[in-house]
Every structure is written in structure tokens, then in C-alpha cells.
Fold:
Amino acid sequence: MAGEKEIRTKIRSVKNMQKITKAMEMVAASKIRKAQDQMEASRPYAQRIRRVIGHLAHANPDYKHPFLVEREVKRVGFIVISTDRGLCGGLNTNLFKRVITEVGEWREKGVEVEYALVGAKAVQFFRRLGGKVVGTATHLGDRPSVNELIGSIKIMLDAYSEGEIDRLYLVNNKFVNTMSQQPVVTTLLPVSQIDLGEEALQDHWDYIYEPDAGELLDDVLMRYIESQVYRGAVENFASEMAAKMVAMKSATDNAGEIIDDLQLAYNKARQAAITQEISEIVGGAAAVSG
Amino acid sequence: MATIHVDIVSAEGEIHSGDASMVYAPARMGEVGIAPRHAPLLTTLKPGEVRVEDTEGKEHFYYITGGILEIQPHAVTVLADTALRGEQLDEAAALKAQQEAEAALEGASEETDLKKAQLELAEAQARYRAAQRLKGKKS
Structure:
């Protein structure tokens, strides 16, 4: 059995670790709230832009924007949003597993895959395991901004316009609630799945377009995709914080258990030492008086 | 007095919402002044100032870096960009993302090693699950 002093040192160091995990837990908890607000704040923009696209697509049925046309799939693009930092349980592992499953399915059909990565963890993962990565964006911090995502998105959109990829997917963690996050795959392109606004169909009026509907559609669709990726990034951040909070809470609990065990060992060691001392004294006294 | 509802939103949040008697915006074809019951119009915006005259005659100024302007007879929506845009700027951002990718993945293979990835992920998950089970047993 380890000596009293060593156990005491160990207890102290575990206590320090516990303080850190506890602090991280609380920081994560406070950030969830903010991330959720951010998610909420991005909703009106997405709603409005969707309505506008509905109008635009409806306005000139003859003009088919390439973003709206389904075509034969030869190559697909994935925008993978991961976290920048670890210590968030199985969050990234689950996400990558989902990506690998999807990629495996495409590969079986003979379809090539390329990636745009958001978050340092995804970059690490694909660096180790290979993959055609056309763009990355890392270190988005606590408030991901559209600005930092534009580059990677543009590469993918250009690739789509030029026919290099025929489909674009977004993979990120969906924030279900604090206890549960789920990796989800969303189709970004083609935008055929978009609900082209029932209200648009019922209305008889139409906009005046400046310059013309085709060019506007270009701009609007690009922003629409960007807003979706942005939302994915924010949602992923909220998921990261939730997963981190849970992971750090269990780390704090585990540290507590370890401290309890060590405390017990410490008490036993101390008692053993005292008992030994007493028996030595008693033995000594008996020898003298005897 | 007739009023028109104004919403200025960006992807990152709501910027302004309220009734106004007049709105001015830097549209692509020149500045437009929008009064209530304006004809429905859809256009893009140049970087500049959006001016909202609210019902009390107070003026609000918002600088926007561009975006989309949607007008309906009773509502104006400005979908503001959060970043300065332009073909060249976007191009530069794309280039930067590409270069970062090249730098970060230098030497990595072009093909994802699916078998290895599956193995690695399965192992990580198993480890994670084992750790959780261990915890459940103890307490």
C-alpha cells in the first residue's frame, strides 16, 4: 500500500483536475444557450430567402437554373462540419462514421467523392485517412460567421456549376437537445427538394425583377446555400457544447469517485500506521515492565 | 397615414423590424425610395446605406455590404449580406480555403481509406462505450 503522503498528493492532483472539468462543464453550459440563440436568429433569413426562391423559380418556368436541375450522379461533394476541439465525447466519431457510411455507399456505385471540411477535427481525420479535400475552414471560434465559410462553399458551388460534382451534401451534428445530438446529412444541391412555396402558387401577382429573374436567382440561390451551411455550423457548435457539457460532467463525477476511493485508501493507511505505532508502544512498555 | 413593414435580416440575425413611412435602399440600378403600396419588386443591393423613416418621423440608418431587396405592397424585406461580397472577393476566399486545404493535407492520399476509417471509428466507439459501461457498473 502506498504511503500516506503519496496518496495525499494524488488526491490533491485529482481535485485540481476535477476543478478544471467542472469549470469546462459550466463554460459549455453557458455557451449552449448562446449558440441556441444564434440558431434561432438565423431562421427568419432562411425562411424569407426560401420564399423568394419559390417566387423566382415560379416566375420563369422556362429558365432552369443548374442548381435546380437533377442530373446523373458521377461525382458528389460533401461539406463536413466537425468541431475544432476535442473533449466532447463521441460527437465527432459518430459524425465521421456517418460520412464514411455514405461515402462507402457512393463508392459502391462507382461514384467519386470530394470534401470541403469545416473544423480542425475533420481536417485531422481526413489527413490521416486520405480523401480529395478541395477546401477547409478551421478555427471558427464561438461565433461562426458566414464570412469564414464562403470560400469553401464557393469552391463546391463552382465545382457544381462546372459539372465536376453532380450533388452536394452537408453533414453536421443536429442539436436535438442537450442530451442528444445526431449526425445528419442534408442535400444542398440540387435544390429540387425545396418546397417552392405553396403560397407563391396561389398568388397571382409577381415581382418586378431588376435586372432579370435568372440573374437574381443566381444570387439568391448562392445565399440560400450559404445560409444553410452557416446554420449547420451554428447547430454543430451548439451540439459540440452540449456534448462537451455532458462529457465534462461525467469526468467531474468520475474524478469525485476516484477521490472517494483514494480518501478511503488514505484513511486505511493512516489507521494502519497508528495501529502499528500503538502496538509498538504497547509491546515496548510490556518489555520494560516485564 | 399608410405604413409599410420593414424587416432587415441577415443570416446571423435580425437587424431591424418595425413599421415605417418610407424606406430608402441602394438598389443595383440606383437608389430606390419605397413608400407604402410600392409595386412588388425584387432586386439586389449594392454596398451602402439603408434608411428607414419610422412612423414617428425618426430616421434609422443601417450600413449594409450588399444583399437582396424584396418589396411587397405592405412589407419590405432586406436580406443583408454579413460580409463584403463581390466576384473577386469570393474568388479570393475560395482560393484561401483551397490553399489552406492543400497546406493542411499535404502528403495525404487522394483516396479515403475506407477500411481503415471504419476500423478506426469502430474502435473509438467501442472504447467510448466501454468507458461508459465501466462507469455505470461502478456507481
